[in-house]
Amino acid sequence: MARLRVTEIFHSLQGETSATGRPATFVRLTGCPLRCQYCDSAYAFHGGEWMELEAILARVEERAQQLVVVTGGEPLAQAGVHDLLHRLCDAGREVYLETSGALSVRDVDPRVVKILDIKTPGSAESEKNHWQNLQYLSARDQVKFVLCDRADYEWARDFVREHPLPVAEWLFSPSYGALDLRELAEWILADRLPVRLQIQLHKWIWGDIPGH
Asked: Inter-axis angle of helices 53-63 and 81-90, to 10 degrees?
């Protein structure tokens, strides 16, 4: 039977993406091949608990939320995640996958909304971007940039202008505690970018702690 290493399963509000503010069940898987300098879930790099797929699905069912967010770490680092995503979709859930963009999304169930994080130079991991992923994005998916400074903003701005992808949203997020929210808002308005400015809502409510 399929197993996955799980850091935590919890109930919270979705803090990012176009679903910001919606109650959701989060399945945070363990492990990640990247070490972004601003990572806020480094506690998921190691440890975790091996869980059978049926046990994970039962925990999700207990929370009875329509929206399920599979996150990490990097969930695609575990091959069994595809079985989990497929089963969640079969159960009628609205499923979001949050991925670093370093691993291929080619085989992700097409019913899943992919939240693809493109790493900027400020992340210190931009060389890990798996650029072939761009061809697997659909009009339901969303592309996210975490921005550390003006240079990151200009890099992401130019990327958006040069890549007319058929995605639902371009998400610009200030790195928590590194980039002033008002500055970022003014840059976006000045450049008339077709993007969504987002904050990590869960951090504004509960702070930078696990399980929220």
From this structure: 40
